[in-house]
Structures are given as structure tokens and as C-alpha cells.
Fold these 2 entries.
Entry 1:
Amino acid sequence: MRVGFIGMGNMGRLLVTALVRAGALRPDEVIIHSRTAEKRRRVAESLPGVQQAYSGTDLVRRCDAVFLCVKPGDTGAVLAEIAPYITRDHLLVVINNTVTLAMLEERTPARVAKVIPSVVQTVARGASLLIFGERCTHGDRALLVRLMGAISRPHVIAEADVRAASDLTSCGPAFLSCAFQALAEAACRRAPGLPREVAEAMVRETARATCELMEQTGYSFADTMQRVSTPGGVTAAGLAAMRERVGGLWDQVLAATAAHEAVKREQLDL
Ligand SMILES: NC(=O)c1ccc[n+]([C@@H]2O[C@H](COP(=O)([O-])OP(=O)(O)OC[C@H]3O[C@@H](n4cnc5c(N)ncnc54)[C@H](OP(=O)(O)O)[C@@H]3O)[C@@H](O)[C@H]2O)c1
């Protein structure tokens, strides 16, 4: 089995590095290509045994499965190059939401799937999303579950749900960081003697421990709020203020990502 990755930017590099380091792929099973030779050379040097392909076509000819790790806007150019060489024996995997499985099935005879990774897979943690096209075989499903299972907790979902689910798993680290940063900053405004880095460390530790508590006890989010918040107490007062201000916020956030993606999809030229 040879697995190829086209695009050695943030996510391509992250996936190859995490999968090889986790032992999910042997270096000699991996072939990489990127538009800029220096980028693929740097990745190959950091992972001895990983091979370079000198074009997308070269990579496709040598691989059974191909991950397209380019931005949606670059997908058309990559497909124009590789589509004539893609056969029904290839598994073609896209890692963004904008390009749909139907678009890939229309352009190629490949078995197609979508994997939505997350930056937290740098530390081989977090959730990933898997969406399988109808042409995928049992072996394709097993392969992607095995690969992503080595560096994350994979969730197989329907393509219709992938935008909202990606907001949780892929945009999630950014959204949570934004909320956590705002909490730490508010504490620093109230307590000027509290250094910002100490406040941020407190929030990180609390977030990590809250998740561990929930994992170990089986508490839901509602259970956790109830455990901390005694009626008439300070946490209850804080939660009430929060609900008043935050109500509807996340609906707006998810509406914004969905609207942005719809525009990008309209602009796609595959
Ligand atoms: N960032 C996240 O947390 C995240 C999470 C999930 C999914 N994604 C998805 O991952 C995809 C990639 O994002 P990214 O942040 O990794 O982007 P990126 O850093 O810009 O990387 C994209 C890479 O694609 C390469 N490329 C472009 N056109 C090419 C071509 N014709 N042939 C070969 N290589 C080509 C570029 O090559 P050179 O640099 O070599 O020129 C670049 O390194 C996006 O679709 C994004 O939606 C991102």
C-alpha cells in the first residue's frame, strides 16, 4: 500500500508527520508532492524513508490512495493535472469541506472520501471526521479508520453534517481559544495583579481538567454545570449572566462559517 499526499502546507505536513510518527504508515509507504520543491524536500528530510514525487502525476501513478491537501481554490489546478491518471483503483481523499464528494466523483472514476483533520492531531489527539463516498469499499473504510484512529478519534458522519461538525472539531481549537482568551482577559481586568500568562495557564489547566473529569465520571456538560453551580451561589450568578449574553452566539458563529463556505463553493472552478 502506497499513500500519497499532494500539498505540503500546514495540514499535509501535519498529517504525514503525525501518521508516520504514530507508526500508522511506514515511511516507505508514503510519497509526497508539493508545488514548491523546497517544501517537499524539507518534509522528506525530516522523515527519513518518505519518498518525493516530482509531479502530481508521478505521485498518482505510484500510489493506491491519494490525499489532496491543497486549498479548495487550488483543487481545480491539481485535478486538471492528475485526473487523467486517476483510475477506479485509486482512493482519492479530500481534506476540506468546500469540495464535495460529488464534485470529485464527477471528475474522476476514483473511490472518494473526505477526511477532516484538526490542528490538534499535531499531538495525536482530538476528533477527526470521515465521510465515505458510495464507491468506497470496506477496505477503504477500514484503511481511513485505521490511519485516523492512530492520531485521533475518528467519527464517521454524513456529508450533510460535515460543516457543523467541522466547526466543533476543526475550527473548534480556534473557537475555544477565542472564548478561553476572553475569559482570561476579563479576569485580568478585574484583578490587575494577575499576570496575563498566569490567567491563561489557569484557564488551560481548568479546561483540560474539566474534560478529564467528564471523561472519567461520564458527566455531561449539564452535569458539570450543576456540580459547580449551587443555587444562589456565585457560579449560578455568572452562568445566568453568561446565558443572557451568549444566547444565540454559537448559532451566529455556525451561520457565518456555513455562509462563507457556500460563497467559496460558488467560486470553485473545478
Ligand atoms: N488548518 C486547519 O486547521 C485545517 C483543518 C482541516 C482541514 N483543513 C484544510 O486543509 C487544506 C489545506 O490547508 P493548509 O492550511 O494546509 O493550506 P496551505 O498551508 O496553504 O497548504 C496547501 C499546500 O498546497 C500546495 N499546493 C497548491 N497547489 C498545488 C499544486 N498544484 N500542486 C501541488 N501542491 C500544491 C501548496 O504548495 P507549496 O506551498 O509547495 O507551493 C501548499 O503548501 C484546506 O483545504 C483546509 O480547508 C485545514
Entry 2:
Amino acid sequence: MPNILITGASGFVGGAVVEHILRQPLVDNVQLLLLVRADDKAAGFSRIINNLKKFELSEQQLALITEDSILIGDLAEPENFINDTRLDNITQVINCAAIASFGNNPVLWKVNVDGTLIFAKRMARVKGLQRFVHVGTAMASMPDKGSVFYEDMPDNDHNEDLVQYTASKRAIEKLIRQECPLMPFVVARPSIIVGHTQFGCRPSSSIFWVFLMAIKLKKFTCTFDANIDVIPVDYCAMVLVNLCLNQDIQHDFYHISSGEEMCTPFHEIDTFVAKASNTKTIIDEYKQTSYQDFTGIRKQFKNILGPCNDKIILRAIKLYGGFAELDVKFDNQRLMDMGIPKPAPFRSYIDKCVTTTRGQSISELMMVDFK
Ligand SMILES: NC(=O)c1ccc[n+]([C@@H]2O[C@H](COP(=O)([O-])OP(=O)(O)OC[C@H]3O[C@@H](n4cnc5c(N)ncnc54)[C@H](OP(=O)(O)O)[C@@H]3O)[C@@H](O)[C@H]2O)c1
């Protein structure tokens, strides 16, 4: 019976991974251990259940998670949980936990690199470990502008990281490969995860607000035709579980992405947001605008976006605008070769993202990405 340790289950991706497993008909044959930050098991359990409720699981499905499924721990202090003997029985790990923020979190390196390495080294000593799936990020490859990034390409070390987050994600992959050479380690790098095909942004408004903000401003740093490699969180979760349990995988590195053909041009996002909100598209008014030019109009942000801190909005434009300008696609041939279906196109569920964010201001929606 697989005994899977999942980290980050109180978050967006880890929550979707648990959701995916709980919906499987053979779920009774799987044991789960969930690493979560909390003072005690009861508090950890309640954090996990509250997150899973966003995925509309039934009471019966939720009942499969109990306090015994909880491992209390913080990757900033891994020595406090790595001696738990339940880890010795783990057969697979899906490591979703990380500080996934573009902000300047002072413990970013401590959690994403130092703590994660200690945790990986501990799991490398588990005799029955069959797979350690580590969730990276496609942007860690620092792709060239306008390029397609293929899975067999080395990271572009000559390009500069736009944020420390991507540097930390690249560093930990390299360190685990160096220091745990015998561990059955697989890296899955998702592109940009936005919403859920069934529940829209209910599980998380992460990044969707960037599109809404750009549409409201009728300006952003990218062209109107720029391609955005977006995947839904439930697709990402399905792939992670497959990479975790599939006995026959050929590679130790995968992109989870929409691939060359399925990227969504920004103008299409505008069209489908307009349709779902019953508003006009901005096609005739959109203006590609540099960060520098945005600084000059910062005082208008409140009028356009509602109550907000113009400094934070400018910072968001700088951080997310830098990625949007890249106009990059991530090839997903390895998943296609495994017979894994393509992700649902963003346009097919944008309406659900619009509905589930209705009535919330940009300031409210963006909070999730500035923890
Ligand atoms: N969202 C995307 O677009 C995207 C794209 C590519 C890759 N990824 C990767 O996907 C993974 C999950 O991201 P996400 O979007 O799900 O982010 P998220 O919603 O912020 O979830 C992050 C998870 O990591 C946990 N975590 C953070 N610091 C921790 C610590 N010190 N010790 C233990 N757990 C800790 C969080 O726990 P708390 O609830 O206690 O904070 C939460 O459960 C990350 O590795 C990220 O790099 C995400």
C-alpha cells in the first residue's frame, strides 16, 4: 500500500494533490501523512481540513483525513520533525511546501533550500522510499525572452533571476541531486498555476488577480499578444500524483505546462474575462506600458483599482510584469509521451475564476501572493 508523505497540503498545490487522491476510487488503499505547520495535531488537522473544504470534497472524503494523518513540522526547523518514526514507513513523497512568494521573505532560503535539503536527506535514508517528487517551478530555468524552453535544456545560468524565489528553487534541486544521489528523485516544474477547472479561484486567487489588474488598468508590461503558459491546479495535481505512483517513468525531470500549442495569449484572457463579466474587451484601448511609465501614473491606481496601496501595486507590476514580458512557453513533451492528456485550456474555465473572485478587490485578491 502506498504510504505517501505530502508537504504543503495547507496550500494551493498541496491541497489539490490531496483532493486528487481523496477522489480516487481506490483511495482506501493509500495512506497519507501530511506535513503542516501548527502548534499541535488538532490545530494542524483543522488547517488541513479548512483548506480541503475549498475543493468541495464530501464529508465522507474528508473523513479519510484524521489527526493521525498529521505530521506537525516547519521546514525552517526540520530537526523538530525529522525524527518522527512514521517517516521510516513512507514509500513516496510529494514535496509541495515552499515559500512561493515573490516578496522578500527573510526566511526564504532557510525554508526553500536549507530546511528542504535536511528534509530530503532524511527521506533519502528511508529504505522503502520509491519516489520523492519535488515541485520546482518552470521559471527557475530563467528562459530567454520569446523562447520555447525544452525539458532537456540546461538552466540559463547566464540570465539573472527576476526574484530570489526562482534562485532558491533552482538551488535546492541541484543540492538534492548532489547530496542524495541514490534517492529516487524526480523534479516536476509547473509553469503558471491559475485556478481550478471546477472551482475557479475558490481554492486560491493566486496570480488570477494579475490578469484582472492588467485588464482594469488597460495596460501592462507585455504585448497584447504575449503568450502565458497557464495550467489549472487540478491538472498539476493529477500529474504530480501520476509521477509519484507511476512505476514506469523515463526521466527525472518534467515540465507540467500547457506546452507550445496551448499557451493562452493575453488578448484571449481579456476576451474571456469580458464575456464572463459581461463587460467590453479592452482590445482597442490596451497599451503596452513599461514599469517606468507606470510609476508616473501611480496616483491613478486607486481610482481604477479601488482601495489599494500604490506602492504595493507598483511592486506587483514590477515583479509579475517581468515574468509576463518573457512571453515564454514550456515544452511538455515528456508528459505527452507518457499518454497524459493536455491540460484544459485556460479559456475553458476563466468564467469560473471570474465568478469566484467577483466582489473582491485587487488588494484583497493579491494578498495570497504577498505572504
Ligand atoms: N502557484 C504557482 O503558480 C506555482 C507555479 C510553479 C511552481 N509552484 C510551486 O508549487 C509549490 C506550492 O506552491 P503553492 O502555489 O501551493 O503555494 P502556497 O499556496 O503558498 O502553499 C505553500 C505551502 O508550503 C507550506 N510552507 C511554507 N513554508 C513552510 C515551512 N516553513 N514549513 C512547512 N511548510 C511550509 C505552506 O504552509 P502554510 O500554510 O503553513 O504557510 C503551504 O502549505 C511551491 O513549491 C511552488 O514553488 C507554484
